[in-house]
Amino acid sequence: SLKMASDSPESLMTLCTDYCLRNLEGTLCYLLDNETLRLHPDIFLPSEICDKLVNEYMELVKTDSIFEPHESFFTLFSDPRSTRLARIHLREHIVQDQDLEAIRKQDLIELYLTNCEKLTAKSLQTLVSFSHTLISLSLFGCSNIFYEEENPGGCEDDCLVNPTRQVLVKDFTFEGFSRLRILNLGRLIEGVNVETLLRPLASLAALDLSGIQLNDVAFLTQWKDSLVSLVLYNMDLSEEHIQVIAQLRKLRHLDISRDHLSSYYKFKLTRRVLNLFVENLVNLTSLDISGHTMLENCTIPSMEEKMGQTSIEPAKSSIAPFRGLKRPLQFLGLFETSLCRLTHIPAYKVSGDKNEEQVLNAIEAYTEHRPEITSRAINLLFDIARIERCSQLLRALQLVITALKCHKDDKNIQVTGSAALFYLTNSEYRMEQSVKLRRQVIQVVLNGMESYQEVTVQRNCCLTLCNFSIPEELEFQYRRVNELLLNILNQSRQDESIQRIAVHLCNALVCQVDNDHKEAVGKMGFVMTMLKLIQKKLADKTCDQVMEFSWSALWNITDETPDNCEMFLNYSGMKLFLECLKEFPEKQELHRNMLGLLGNVAEVKELRPQLMTSQFISVFSNLLESKADGIEVSYNACGVLSHIMFDGLEAWGICEPHREEVVKRMWAAIQSWDINSRRNINYRSFEPILRLLPQGISPVSQHWATWALYNLVSVYPDKYCPLLIKEGGIPLLKDMIKMASARQETKEMAR
């Protein structure tokens, strides 16, 4: 089912929601006084749509860097006559007191506030306005919601010293929340009296007290006839706790798991405790005891274990107390316990660290509220993906993507998650992934690069991008990827390996893309960045991959893009070219890349006068004899000179070397090349070559152009014959054959 889910296109509802949120002004709203969003008066939206708008808005603000949050977004939902809200999930610092205040007239049924640290006791008061309708409420990680500012009204002298002293609110309770059944108070601040807070609630069905230390939980028995789910994650338990839990006979889900790294726990699980749960909690379908140390051996001796297929039948259970279960559990949490490695575990789903299935179950179960556990589970997945082969690839990818999105600011998850993504997206898994899924991966990788300047995350993210077809698969985020990479390359202190990968990616991104893309990237400072890298490498006298990739990237980005060619000249590119030639006379690859780039510059008529100096012309002429990289360096040098010759005698504004002498050397060079040479070059268009055919000013340029076309169409006919025909090369060649000024050997080749 996961494969289907990840492949199916987005629903129309999702697409419309997304479009409206990105274009609020053009769709649902208008701007009042140029600043406040107002709903158009003729719009009436039911809760199915409004809930989705709010929940998607949260998602966009959190995971899309280009999406701008609106100050007045929540005011759009202030009037229940035009917009209805029922079930909303708000998270983190995006949400403030005034946002909840804005929707206080709504009849909310479900309100999840997760890690909303900016909410204060003002929001507690707002909650009261939902009290008659709320069924489900989460205040997980809202660490300041029980604090108010002291002296908000009458201000004594003390105010000046400390204007906002935070005071704990002691008198708030859930009085009047008559329909509330599901409540999550996870990570509630110390000092709040949980018992008093909850006492007014008549019939709680689910309660989450994660990360709260309560020494007395006897008050829980007031809901022994209604409580079906209880979560006491990271609570240090005692015999008293166990006795109370055993009385909650309606429980279907019990979670007493803990993070074994977070602090010292006195409590140890015993066979007796597990037996007590199995005997008393007869409705139990889900139990989590992850992270617990077993005080005694609860396992069946291996000789008594029925061998053969692993079984989930309670009667065969390798964990002794669970032989008393009436039926297998739906879920059993055994992450970071020794029990998960046993053979027969009586549960359909087990979280643990034994194999891929258990690890994925752990990531799935703990991602939302337990990043500290999730990052360790993802680390295990990373090892599985790296060493073995993932059998549930799509599920693994979806889970890692969700974790990375959910915990954008959690360093551990960003490091382990980005490393796992690298292995999960490599080529052996390629076939199983849809376009949509691969795009989601790219989005979270870019989010990671944006939020984290940390070296490991940056390196993992860059490496993961290398698993994609570039530029095609990154085209939908083209600007953003380039900005992020240039940002990495412009940092003053750089990690060598990241620099190398980033330059490689930059080069690949500007290879074979449309000119408007290249112009846009040029305006972002691409040319300048590459020249700075080259300058640094020159100063260190090193010609490594970074140096070669940087020249290669400049060659690609100047292809048929005059603006970028001009930038290259303006930022003293020619000076660097000469210095590199001098410093690295033997580096063939480097020479090829540099001359390819100068070929692009020479194609721009307005820029050619800048190449017309004795020094440059001498250098190009000498390179005609170069044997570097087959014919490539000689060929490109001849191309540069062919364009310069095409400007005619009057453009030759130098005394040395003489024009005729250079022409002679060009003829000699062309005649020395093997017409069947395989090539290290890629033409997207023949236009710059074809323009040298219909002219009599420079027969040698005409000959170079004809040689180039002849070589390419004879060595690579499938690729270049169609291009020659499409760009109108045939009539140009026919006309040239009739020209008196053309040389005989040129005409032969044209024929």
From TrEMBL:
Family listed: Belongs to the zyg-11 family.
Residues of the Zer-1-like leucine-rich repeats region domain: 196-337
SMART domains in the cross-refs: ARM (SM00185)
GO cellular component labels: Cul2-RING ubiquitin ligase complex
Gene name tied to this protein: Zer1
Pfam families xrefs: LRR_Zer-1, ZER1-like_2nd
Subunit composition and interactions: Interacts with the ELOC-ELOB/Elongin BC complex. Part of an E3 ubiquitin ligase complex including ZER1, CUL2 and Elongin BC.
Domain Protein zer-1 homolog-like C-terminal: 404-750
Entry protein name: Protein zer-1 homolog
Cited InterPro entries: ARM-like, ARM-type_fold, Armadillo, LRR_dom_sf, LRR_Zer-1, ZER1-like_C, Zyg-11_UBL_adapter
Transmembrane intervals: none
Keywords in alphabetical order: Acetylation, Leucine-rich repeat, Repeat, Ubl conjugation pathway
